[in-house]
Specification:
alpha+beta, three-stranded mixed β-sheet
């Protein structure tokens, strides 16, 4: 699809499942029924079949045609063989892209996503839904009964007892996206917090004696504790999940490198004298090495298993799409069922 197209067919981004590998995701994409793929391509591609109920959602036929896009040549070659062939080709392309481009950085990306899920679940449990939903992203608000997304079209998703699945993303720019396609629950896709950590070069095992002594993750936590911080605060700073941070803090605590103090319901960690001496020596060592021409750079990254959790709103809920003043030539009705 062209980069400026606001609709991505749902078969390309199936609803996430806990513990699923990329190979399994690709298999689900490949198994998409051909008629479902054809229908989603009909919606998005100029010159293909126009479905009356889709056309009726637009202000005019001309507006709908302006929104649709020409068929990319590569897609046209595959689409001649039907929707099933498109699904198979898309699955192969997705798997190749992941292995060639994303796989080396996936543990770091996954750590950021897990940290976001954990942080928001903790906030929802402590402060309620409003504390999480009000700051998910642009052009969306929580009224206490509805999630209202401002769009250039109107529609209501009112599915009893479906809840809402929240999916963080590290590449999303712009407003919160959503998808609603039975039999799956409604999905909201939002920009994850802590993505700045992905732009930082991972600490290398050869960069400090501290890293060699305690490992990359614990060295990073120890140097980050220049001021007292809670597990949640450290999770936000580093991009690791709260479970990962808590596990490694426990090891540092038993080693006498950090100590913890409770004030009310909040437990904060701080470095001990020994921990500060090690962190300070590490900083001085790295500053000294930075002043010398590097002979080699050896990079490494580590993660710890973290549970991928859902945070949903049970019961009967509405997800409203409120028409705003956006240009009328960019409609993308709810019934189109794509990521919007």
């Amino acid at each position: 699809m062209p980069a400026d197209h606001s609709y991505a067919p749902d078969f390309l981004t199936p609803v996430p499942r806990h513990g699923e590998s990329m190979r399994e995701v690709a298999a689900r994409i490949a198994a998409t029924p051909g008629e479902e793929v054809d229908y989603q391509l009909d919606i998005a591609i100029r010159g293909r079949r126009v479905w009356p109920h889709v056309l009726a959602l637009h202000r005019s036929g001309a507006t709908y045609e302006r929104w649709r896009r020409p068929m990319p040549p590569a897609l046209a070659r595959v689409a001649r063989h039907g929707g099933a062939a498109v699904a198979t080709a898309a699955a192969t392309a997705m798997a190749t892209l992941f292995e060639s481009v994303l796989a080396p950085d996936w543990p770091r990306v996954r750590a950021v996503l897990d940290a976001d899920i954990s942080n928001r679940a903790d906030r929802m449990a402590a402060h309620g839904a409003a504390a999480v939903l009000d700051d998910l992203g642009e052009r969306m608000r929580w009224t206490g009964a509805e999630l209202v997304l401002e769009r250039p079209y109107s529609g209501i998703i009112d599915w009893a007892d479906e809840g809402v699945l929240f999916v963080p993303a590290t590449t999303l720019v712009g407003p919160v996206l959503f998808a609603a396609e039975r039999p799956h629950p409604p999905v909201l896709i939002y920009r994850a917090r802590g993505i700045g950590a992905l732009g930082e070069r991972p600490a290398g095992a050869a960069e400090s004696a501290l890293t060699g002594l305690v490992g990359v993750t614990r060295a990073a936590l120890l140097t980050t504790l220049d001021v007292p911080a809670s597990t949640v605060e450290l999770s936000r700073r580093t991009g690791w999940s709260s479970a990962t941070v808590s596990y490694h803090l426990g090891i540092l605590l038993r080693a006498g490198l950090v100590e913890r103090n409770r004030r009310g319901r909040v437990v904060r960690y701080t470095r001990t004298g020994l921990g500060t001496a090690l962190a300070t020596s590490s900083a001085q060592e790295q500053a000294s090495r930075a002043a010398q021409p590097p002979s080699a750079i050896c990079t490494d990254s580590s993660t710890a298993p973290a549970e991928n959790r859902r945070s949903g709103i049970p019961g009967r809920r509405q997800c409203s799409v409120k028409q705003d003043s956006a240009p009328v030539d960019d409609p993308c009705p709810d019934e189109l069922r794509g990521r919007r």
